[in-house]
Amino acid sequence: MKKLNLLILLLLPLFCLAQSTLKGKVASETKSLEWAEISIVNMEGKIIDGTTTKEDGSFEVNLKNGFYKIEISLLGFTAYEKEISLEKNTDLGTIVLKENETKLVEVVVQSKKKTIEQKTDRLVYNLENNVTTTGGDALSAINTAPGVVVKNDVITILGKGTSRVMIDGRLIELTGEELNNFLKSISAADIKNIEVISNPPAKYEADGTGGLINIIMKKGVRDSWKNSTTVSYDQNKYGIYTLRDNFFYSKNKFRFSASVNGRTGYKNSIENLDMYFPDGLSKMDADTKVKNESFSGKLALDYDLSKRTTIGFQFMNDRNNPDFGSDIRIEKYNIENELQNVTLNKSFTDKGSKNQTYNAHLITKLDSLNRKLSFDVDYFNYNSKFDRDFIANNYNSDMEFIDINQAGRNISNQDIDNWSFKADMEHPFQAFNLSYGAKMSFTNSISDVVFYNTITGIPELDLSQSNRFKYTENNQAVYINGDKKINEKWSLQMGLRLENTQTNGFSETMNQENVNDYLKLFPTFYASYKKNDNNTFSLNYGKRINRPRFDLLNPFRVYINSNSYSEGNPFLKPSFSDNFELAHSYKEVLRTSIFVNAITNGYGVVFTSNPETNTQIVTRENYYKGLNYGLGETYSATLADWWQSENTLYFLGSETKFIKDINATPSNSLQIDFTTNNTFVLGKNTKLQVDFNYSSPFKSGLYEVGYVSSFDIGFKQDLLNKTLQIAFLANDIFNTSYLKDFTSVVNGVKQVYSQNESNRFVRLSVIYNFGNKKINVKERNFGNQEERKRAN
C-alpha cells in the first residue's frame, strides 16, 4: 500500500501547501469530556475532517491554512460552534460545554438540530423533528422536504421538474414506480438528513432537469454497535404490514452494516377517465386491488488498510411483486348523452421486478493536506416482467351480452445491465480548492413485447403487436470543479462537465436501427455574498440534460385496457435545460429564491386519441420548449418553546411553445403551493405533528391539473429512555391528495383523468432500538451509476 501511495504521489502534481495544527480540550463545568465529536466544516458547509476527544478531553486536527467552522457536539450538552481563521498552529484552550437545562421544553429545543440549513449549493433538511416520518419510509420522508413534491410516482423540485435521487451521493438509476418501490424499502428512521440540490455541481451527472435529492444515511460510530427494528401497520381500504431491521457494527478498522426490509398487503386504486369524442362521451371507471409486496436487503462493509486508505463493498437487492386485478367499466354515450353500450373489462396482471447493485470502492488520503483520491466500480442489473390477461365483453344499454370486444394476453420483459467506473480527486491548493474526475458507463438493455389474441379461447401470436428491442448506451465524462472563499463576504464555485454519449436502438421485428452520438458541455456557477450576520445572497447557474428512460424508446405497444394502450418512441431525443436561481437568506429563518428554468426540445407524455375507434393512445414526443419560473419563500419559526413551525410558499408560472404539430394549443397559468409543518412538544417524551399542504389548480403547456391538498396528524411517544418508540399517523384525513381533473385536449378530443391510490390511511408503528445509539455525522459519497434511474 505504501508503494501505491508513492505511485499516486508521483503521478499527481505536488504543491507545497501551508498547514497548521488545531487543538484544544473539551470539558463540562466539572470534568473533561471524552467522545465529544469534533467536526471541521469549510465555508461551503461541507464536513472535511473530524475526530473525537480522548479520555482527557483533548483533540488535535491537522489542516491547511484557511477559514473554517469548528462544531463540537455531545449527547446531553448544548452544541458549540465557532468560526476560525487558521494561519498557524492554534490552541483553542479549554472549551466548556453547557449541559442542557433540566426544564422539559428547553431540553428538546436546545439539543435538536435546525430543521433546514442553507448551504452554498444545496438545502439540507433534517427530518428527525418531523413526527409524521416516524415508522415511515424514504419516499414519505422526501415528500416532507421543503420545495419537494411526490405526485403520481414522480419526485419533483417545485418549478424545476423531475428529480433524480441519490443515497450517500450514489445515484439510484430508477424512476417512476420502480424508484418509489425502492425508496419504500428504506426506513426513514435511518436517514440522517435529505439534501435538496436544485442546481447540482459538476461532480454529478448532468442528467435530470429537476436537480438531485441526496439521502444521507446514519452511520454507526467506532467501537460500537446498534440495532433498530421497526414494525408498522397501515390501514386504508386494505391493510399493509411492514417489518424493517437495521444493524450497524464498528470495531477498530472494520465497519459493517446490514438491513432487511419486508412489506406485504394490498392497496386500492380508483381511476376515472372521460373522453369527449365527436359522437359522444366515453366514460371509464376502474377499480384495482394492488398487491403491495416487496423484500429488500443491503450489506455494506469498509476496512481501513492503513490510516490513509480504506476499501469497501456494498450490495443492495430489491424485489417487488405488485400484482393487481382490475375491474373496468367503459360506458359509451351518444351525442344526446344517452347510454349506447357498456364494455366490462376484467384483467389480472402478474407484475414483478428485481434489481441488484454491487459497489466496490477505494479511498486514499494522499497526505495530511486533505488531498484525497477515490475509485468506484459499480454493477447494476434490473429486470422486470409484465404479464396481463384480459377479456372485454360488450353489452347493450340494458346490460344484455352482445359479444366479446377483445381478449388477449400481453407479455413484456426487460433486462438491463450497467457497468460504471469512476475516479474522483479532491485537490486543495493554498488559494482555492480543486476537484476533478472521470467516469465511464456502459449499458445494455433488452426488452420484448409479445401479444396473444385469445378471443377464440386459443392463444394466437400476433406478430404485428410483438417486438424485441435492443438498446445500448455508453457515456464518458470528465469534470473539474473549483471553489474559493475570496474573503469574509464572498465565495465562488465554478465547474465544467464534459459528457460524450453514444446510443443504439435496434428493433429486431421491424429491422429498424436508430443511432445517436453527441458531445455536450455542462457548466455550473455559484456565487455567495454574506452582507452581514443577518443577510446572505447567492446566485447559481447550471445546464442539464434529460435522457429518456429505456422503456420509452421501445416502439411497440402495451395494452392498458381494451380501450387504451401505451407505445414507446425510438426516435425520442434528450431535452436540455438552463437553470438560474437567485436566493436570499435572512437570519437563516426567512429564505427567498427566484428561479428560471428554460427547456429546449422538451419531451413528455401525450394523451392522444383515435376518434374513429374511440381509443386512447399514450405516446411520448419531443413536442415543446418551455420557460418555468417562480418565487419561493421558506420560513422557519420557533413560535414558542413547545412549537416549531416550517413553512413554504411558492408562486409558479410557465410559458410553453409547441415545436411539433400535435393538434393542440398550449395553455399556462399561475400555480400556488403552500406547506406548513408544525411540531408541538407535549411532554418530555411526547410530540404531536400537524401538517398541511395545498397546491392550487393550474395549467401548464398541454395539461390542466386540479387542486391537491393533504391534512396529516402524527403522534410519537418515547419510552424506556427512547429505546422504544410508538408512533401514530393519520395521513390525508380528508382524502384530497390524489390526482384529479388532469385534462388535455388533443385532436379535438378532451380527456379528463383522475386517480386515487389510497393516500388516506392510518399507521401504527413500533420502533425498538438497542446497542450504542450514537450516530456519526460524517459521511462519504460513493461512486454513482448513470443509467439506473431510467430503468422502469
Automatic annotation (TrEMBL):
InterPro entries: Beta-barrel_TonB_sf (IPR036942), CarboxyPept-like_regulatory (IPR008969), OMP_b-brl_3 (IPR041700), Plug_dom_sf (IPR037066). It is found in: Cell outer membrane. Residues 1-18 form the signal peptide. The keyword Cell inner membrane does not apply. Coiled coil: none annotated. Pfam families: CarbopepD_reg_2, OMP_b-brl_3. Its main location: membrane. It comes from the Bacteria. Keywords: Cell outer membrane, Membrane, Signal. Residues 365-768 form the Outer membrane protein beta-barrel domain. This is Outer membrane beta-barrel family protein. It comes from Flavobacterium ginsengisoli.
